Amino acid sequence: MLDTGTSLLLEEAEKLKQAGYHEQAIKVCEKVLMSDLECAEAYEEIGDNYLSMREYFKAKKALERAIKLNPESANANYLIGFLYSCFGKWKQSIEYLEKADSIYPNHPEILRCLGWSIYHNGQKKRGIILLERALSMNNDDPLIMSDLGVIYMNEKEFDRAEKLFERVIELEPNNSKAEECLNAIRFFKKEYAKLKKKK
């Protein structure tokens, strides 16, 4: 159980992280570690911030320490699973994400990452099912819609992909990546239709 001072510092770090002040958030977590070197939550926060900064080696180091201190942390297992997916290490990613899902079942963000990793590890149908399940639990999440949209584009399910990215842009009008994906989908949809006519 965390003491009040530690809890308040971790809340402050979370707010800084959400505002994009990752280095300051890390400093606050380091303050926590000065008084409690065994605070797994502080290592999780540090790892999460380093992930946002794309400092993957530092993130991995912090998250491995968090898991060593608390192997049953859904958040630490999720974060390190996500980290492995960034490198295309699908098997390791799935191992940690499945552990996170067993600790905290049916969390949309865990299912999103798990579905993505499972799809890319070759179990396409199962990956899509997990992403669809994540979307049904959180149907306005642009990250879930984007992942699913990319997968449907890969599967040449252009209508489904198009609808998902249209919804992302509706929710986030300035999302340039979603705009690029939507343009690509519309282009491929036309080209694919031309190819079908030639056959």
Account of the 3D structure:
By secondary structure, the protein is mainly α. It has a domain at 1-70: Serine Threonine Protein Phosphatase 5, Tetratricopeptide repeat. The chain has helices spanning 4-18, 22-35, 40-52, 56-69, 74-86, 90-103, 108-120, 124-137, 142-154, 158-171, 176-198. The longest helix has 23 residues, at 176-198. The chain is elongated.
**What class, by secondary structure content?**
mainly alpha
Largest sheet: none
Secondary-structure element order, as H and E? Answer: HHHHHHHHHHH
Mean pLDDT: 94
CATH architecture of one domain: Alpha Horseshoe
Tell me roughly what share of residues is in helical segments: over 70%
Q: Helical segment tally?
A: 11
Give the quaternary arrangement of the chains. Answer: single chain
| CATH topological fold name of one domain | Serine Threonine Protein Phosphatase 5, Tetratricopeptide repeat
* Gross geometry: elongated
Residue fraction in strands: under 5%
CATH class of one domain: Mainly Alpha
CATH superfamily of one domain: Tetratricopeptide repeat domain
Could you give the distance between the termini? Answer: 66 Å
Q: Would you report the number of β strands?
A: 0
Radius of gyration, in Å, reads 19 Å
Low-confidence stretches: none
